[in-house]
Amino acid sequence: MKRTPAKVRALRLAGGAGQYLALACYLIFLGFPLLWLLSTSFKTARELGSLDPAWLPRHPGLDNYRAAFDAQPLLRSALNSLVVACAASLISVTVAVPAAYALARHRSLVGRASSVWILVSQTFPFVLVIIPLFLVLKNLRLIDSIAGLIAVYVVWNLPFSLWMLQGYVKAVPPSLEEAAAIDGAGRVRTLVSVVLPLLAPGLVATLMFSFVTAWNEFFFALVLLKSPENQTMSVILTRFLGAEGVADLGPLAAASVLATIPGLVFFALLQRRLVGGMLAGAVKA
């Protein structure tokens, strides 16, 4: 049966409407936990204890935020998390760029073995490495220190950064490097002046994922940091749980909202480069 132009247009419109409807449902699915958390942070204690919770707070207020700041050193812990996440992501990406370039351009048995080891290392559970890691940091006198936690996150993020950046390096045409070599540029100059500017989207994507991983990490921070002044945001949030595991829900929701802000701001500022970098890396990864 031959379709008329009107039917074809109708099918296209229906298909487009279905795609937008599916996208809207997906966005609601992703955004609902954040919206519910935000709503909970503005509810009063009576509303939080109600058996019939409302979608929106009936009497919104900032009491939960005041209680959260009074109960725990949120600003100090947020600053610790920011320093650790920024330092760990910057160092891991800086180290990963030349290593990823070498693995992508100089293919050998060692390079292939390194790539396999990078994948295998990501399957190791945290519990498997925490005891030897604790002993090593103890000998280096880095237990309960921001520097020690940064070193751990750099090592933990490095395999992921290497794996991601390899795909971006492979997307750079080798002919550009050959042209630079003809002009007399060495390997380092070629990497800095030719390859690195083309890796900007990939660097942003890798930096973003490394930052979020370090910001949200909990287990290493819980084990390695003991002093309250050194603890990160993810550890401080556990203090809103009572001795019997009962959560102080209002202040906990308020503190959790504050903990999500840096990641959301970072994503909002870098979303265009992030999406472009993910697509570029997917071509050759």
Question: Which descriptor suits the 3D outline?
Answer: flat
Distance from first to last alpha carbon: 44 Å
Radius of gyration: 24 Å
How much of the polypeptide forms β-strand, as a percent range?
under 5%
Model regions low in confidence, pLDDT < 50 over at least 5 residues: 277-285
The description of the largest β-sheet is: none
Mean pLDDT: 81
Order of helices and strands: HHHHHHHHHHHHH
Number of strands: 0
* Helical segment count: 13
Query: Which structural class do the helices and strands define?
Result: mainly alpha
Question: What is the percent of helical residues?
Answer: over 70%
Account of the 3D structure:
The protein is an all-alpha fold. It is built from 13 helices and no strands. The longest helix is centred in the N-terminal third of the chain and has 37 residues, at 5-41. It is flat, with a radius of gyration of 24 Å. The chain starts with a helix and ends with a helix. Mean pLDDT is 81; it is low at 277-285.
Brief digest:
This protein is mainly alpha-helical. It has 13 helices and no strands.
Task: Show the helix and strand layout.
Blueprint: H1 5-41, H2 45-48, H3 63-71, H4 74-105, H5 109-121, H6 126-139, H7 146-170, H8 174-182, H9 187-198, H10 200-216, H11 219-224, H12 233-236, H13 249-284
Key phrases:
285 residues, mainly alpha, disordered C terminus
